[in-house]
Amino acid sequence: MMLVRQKYFGLMLFLAAIVFINAGLASAEQRYAIIVGHNLGHPGEDPLRFAERDAKRFRDLLTELGGVDKDAATLLLGPNTAEIKAAVYQLAERIRSGGDQAKNATVIFFFAGHGDSSDLHLAGQKLERKELLELLKKLPCSMKLVVLDACQTTRLGRSRGVKAGPSFEIGVVHPKSAQGMVVIRSTQAGEPAHESDALEGAVFTHYLLSALRGAADLDHDGRITLLEAYTFAYRNTVRQSAQGSSVVQHPSYEIELAGSGDLVLTTPLEASCVILLPVGQEARYLVFHQPSGAVLAEAVSSSKRPLALAVPPGRLLVQRRLSQKFEVAEVVLPFGGQYKLAPEDFIELPYEKVARRGGRLDLHPDVLAISYSSHSDRIQSDWVTRHGFNLAYNRELGQWLAGAQLAMGFSAYQRSLYETDEILLELRGQFGWWTPVSASRLEISVGPEVQILFQNRQRADAERLRQAGISVPDPISNFALGAGGGIELAWRMPLGYRIALFVAVRVSVFAMQVSEVDSKKWTAIPVVGGKAGIGYRF
User: Rounded distance, CA 525 to CA 144, Å?
Assistant: First the structure.
């Protein structure tokens, strides 16, 4: 009991002391970042699964919410020791060239990978922690935030999908030059850190990123400070690691501070895309990006006011975990904006289904679309253009899709002495794959098709010839059967919750049997066309 009290007393000291970071940091005009991820450590260490992914997620969050310009964020995946040092030296030169702005600059350094109490492990190489911190300490800027997410154990804590992974401690150094440095690690000495299969990342990093997206904003001022982020990440890391392993993970720290104020890390309410969690019964929320299923944030709702979470634009899946049930909702924000979740947005699903599909659960996988189409084919010696309508149904299976299209086209043209009217019926199968492109998506699909062409042909001057008393042959009716296949490329842009606008181009080739009065023949027909329409997901 005394040990527990000492740990939380230490945490209280940290929370009290962190408030006294230099007040000028909150208004830093320029921020830089070096983000490093390495899945491989020394020989004999199990490769990490998510360290490099965590580095990408951290970079994306800093450029999205953390005030770091994209050209000021350096991402190193799988680097060696020399490459990391070179990145630090290059950043030092860049800051010096900035002149007086260097006085207010903040540098954020993040490392995810293997390590021990003295070294970081880089695929057989090592980088001494002490040497790295000395290099960072010499950077000519007012503040350095260092996150060392480096593990030192293997084959531990694997129960319930938790694996030994990146570690985390926190400490603060304030040298005589009045340049501050905050160093964060994820465990106390001798404790393993954890990676989570369900979260697809390191546990502490997951909660730190969640905190920075707004989950830690308990005072609802729209800003996330270092104090708020650390408090949220500490509490949830302890809780999660206690549930998933026999060894509990406790973030730790060292403190030497001077000045006053607090470091604001992100401002979620100023983000271009925000979702507001409902007020009321306390519930735990997980937010996933669709269709990748990547977890973006985890938060607990407030009983006083909506909690704002900054998210990237696109389609999101929100899981709500209550004491006795699981509920899910879908949010579509293709162009950003703010969406306030309401109780009626959620539907209850069995735990087994939610657990099996996770963030890749699709609430509306069926798509019905109607479009106007135009295409040209070369049945004989000339190209003929047809216009009509398409009705399509697709079933989405993650990023794969399958479905069918029914199309009808009409054409009327004159060749030589004859006028021709035609009706074309098409039935197409469709098998494809799609990928997100910002808020929109790109689809590519292939499939077989069957066509039936009905043709009615007569002389263009038939009426004039009859008036002149000249005998005119009756109109000739033909039909043709065709079979073949094609490839279609489509671009789809969401307009709202379930409605999307799309345009597509298609190229196909099919063989057609033309039936005439006294003969039949097979002909290879090329087709080029396009369409535009509206799709509805249900």
Answer: 67
Q: Which residue, among 152, 149, 156, has the nearest Cα to 246 in the 3D structure?
A: 156
Helix axes 2-18, 226-244, angle to 10 degrees: 150
Instruction: Concatenate the DSSP letters of all residues of 135-189 into one string.
Output: HHHTSSSSEEEEEEEEE---S-S-GGGEEEE---EEEEE--TTS-EEEEEESS-T
Q: Output helix, strand, coil percentages for the chain, rounded to the nearest 5.
A: 25, 45, 30
Burial of 224 (0-12, 13-18, 19+ CB in 10 A): buried
Question: What ranges do the domains of the chain cover?
Answer: 29-266, 271-360, 366-537
pLDDT given for residue 528 in this prediction: 94
Task: Lowest mean pLDDT of 268-282, 305-319, 342-356, 513-527, name the range.
Answer: 513-527
CATH of 271-360, one of 2.60.40.10, 1.10.10.10, 3.40.50.920, 2.60.40.3230: 2.60.40.10
Fold of 29-266: Rossmann fold (3.40.50)
Predicted confidence (pLDDT) at residue 517 exceeds the cutoff of 90: no
More confident residue, 524 or 518: 524
Helix ranges (H only) for 65-145 are 81-96, 129-137
The CATH architecture that domain 366-537 belongs to is Beta Barrel (2.40)
